[in-house]
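Exercise 4. Each item below gives a protein and its sequence. For each, produce the structure-token representation.

Item: ATP-binding cassette, subfamily B, multidrug efflux pump (Sulfitobacter pontiacus).
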Amino acid sequence: MFRFFENLVDPYADYAEQDTPPTRLWPFFRNYSAPFKTVFWVTGVLSVVVAAVEIGLIYYMGRLVDLMDGSPAEVWRNYGAEFIVVALLILIARPAVQAVHVLLLNNAVLPNYGTLFRWRGHRQVLRQSVGWFEDDFAGRIANRIMQTPPAAGEVVFQVFDAISYALAYLIGAAILLTTSDWQLLIPLVAWFALYAVLTQWTIKRVAVASQAASDARSEVTGRVVDSYSNIHSVKMFAHHDREIEYAKGAIENARVTFQKEMRIFTIMDICLVSLNGLLIVGVVGWAFYLWSTGNATVGVVTAATALTLRLNSMTAWIMWALSTFFQQLGVVAEGLETIAQPITLVDDSDAKPLALTDGRVEMRGLTHHYGRGSGGLDQVDITVQPGEKIGLIGRSGAGKSTLVKLLLRFYDPEGGRILIDGQDITTVRQDSLRQAIGMVQQDNALLHRSIRENILYGRPTATEAEVIAAAKQAQAHDFIQELNDQGGRSGYDAQVGERGVKLSGGQRQRIALARVILKNAPILLLDEATSALDSEVEAAIQQTLYGMMEGKTVIAIAHRLSTIAEMDRILVMDGGRIVEEGTHEVLLGQGGLYADFWNRQSGGFLRTEEPTS
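Answer:
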């Protein structure tokens, strides 16, 4: 039974991804709620039925009191069959309706709705560009992905568990009082008008306060995760107290915003108690007056009293439900600041996979300043022939890494074009472009997974033998065999820790090399690929790299000039432009910037004189 309801909606069903999702709450909810349309309708109808049954029970209680004026034998003789039918309805029909209602709400809607929200939100965020992620805290992004789905589920829960039920109950109560004596409706309507004013006052402020509190919580998460993620820097610079103060500012802001939110609920509670006192005195007192003047029966007074006391107990629940509803709406609204942002780097609607033939790379008038008007690249023209190996050198901030990021299409250039085998990379699918490029970076952050999973990231379909062969080529197999983690896993099953922190820099770089070896992409980018290796391991790795480069188009960035001296061509960058070009011997003979770098090296390293921009 549970499985039937749990499987009514598939949260992972295929759907049309949107580059520009709705940014307003209700269109966004409507978009994400489409798979639940039928379930929502049935749940809503059952909420009304459940409320109607409760009203019916109160009405029948009043009728029962009036029937008790007669003798027991006469009452049983005239109404016995009716009593049995009502008893069966209470024992069988009422639990059945309630059971279906809670099964739909608790088992079909709540688990699947939150899962759908989290799944689609994660997919949407993962489609964003690298630049988009660089502009925000990773912790804040993750916090929004985690807290928005349960908030959205709570919104839906309150709609069908409290709000629709309460509306149906209130309408039913009004009808019941009217059928008894229309004058009983007067205090109820007066109370409802005041209750509506209080509700409006509350929710208007709760929505704003809740979003502010949610923003503050995300800021706390962002700052705390930032400290944890950079714990080595925190410890190295002895900034424990500084980080405490950095987090305290956000934590205190979260406390203040939460206090402001709670003030609203305190005022609401105090006003609600007073309003409910008016409701009880008004309806019950009026019913008693009607009975004393002979205009109402004892049954009417009983029903009115029971109904009023039920409303009294419900009002706090309804108000809290409404407050929770709008409070969680505020959380969702804050989450939409991440989930509903337009995709910043999208494929054209008619984009096709990259048709790689030779691996020719052309950069024409390439310009990119990260929106700042300076820095980055300025009118760069480079052609890399198929199978050619070029080296890029230059001071920090010369534009080398920017060039690589543009080639990988982490950003779209502000000017110019990049072509691979004659195809503008902005017109091909991003995944197909990056699948054709292998890259080893200076700082290789690994996934918090096993060694095997990290190497397989290069080619998930590779066999175990291929994984081991790649690790051996990268001089990583021996140290992998000796790895153990806290979970008792060893070798290729050992976990590497977040960003690979359990490994040394050289070990991480060798795992990254193994990953690229396994990928075997036709275009190879090397950004200080051996910078973290000791001399002995580097000498062995150099032979592996030369083997990897065979038949591939290679662009290598290096400060250690000895690693690129054997390249077919070397490009010297300065101020975002190509200022020199040629082989190692030619550039030395020119006596320019490259020769100056070479002559001023110490231990094979290039001294950088300008700060990174």
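Check: Residues 566 and 584 are 7 Å apart (CA to CA).
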